């Protein structure tokens, strides 16, 4: 008997805005992404393992950073 289980992360784009990147300094689109991590059994996600996290990704350099609360309210 085989038991297939694991943890899977999934990203969802929440929104985007035009802003200045803190890493590269360029004015480019900033994408807000929500990442959830869930436990899965037989490739079916069952329940979250940790709370959802939010990231801001720069479209110019591709770097990501944690989103501040002000950015979450604005999106």
TrEMBL record:
Which residue intervals define the domain Zinc-ribbon in the entry?
20-64
Which species is the source of this protein?
Paractinoplanes hotanensis
Domain of life of the source: Bacteria
> InterPro entries of this UniProt entry?
Zinc_ribbon_15 (IPR031493)
Name under which the protein is recorded: Zinc ribbon domain-containing protein
């Amino acid at each position: 008997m085989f038991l297939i289980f694991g943890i899977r992360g999934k990203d969802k784009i929440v929104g985007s805005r035009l802003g200045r990147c803190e890493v590269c300094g360029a004015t480019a689109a900033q994408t807000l992404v929500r990442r959830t991590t869930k436990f899965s059994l037989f490739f079916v996600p069952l329940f979250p393992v940790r709370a959802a996290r939010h990231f801001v990704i720069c479209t110019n350099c591709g770097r990501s950073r944690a989103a501040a609360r002000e950015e979450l309210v604005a999106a």
